[in-house]
Amino acid sequence: MFEGTKEHATRPHQETRAIMLTHGATSVGEGPARQWEKERFGAPVLRDPLMDAGAMCETVETATDWSNVPRLKKAVGEALASKLVGDSPALIMCHVSHVYATGCSLFFTVVAGGGDNPEAVERKWRAVKSAATQAMTDNGGTVTYHHAVGTDHLPWMDSEVGQLGIDILKAVKREIDPAGILNPGKTFDRPEGAPRTLER
Question: Which residue ranges form the domains of the chain, and what is each CATH number?
Answer without folding.
Answer: 43-138 (3.30.300.330), 148-192 (1.10.45)
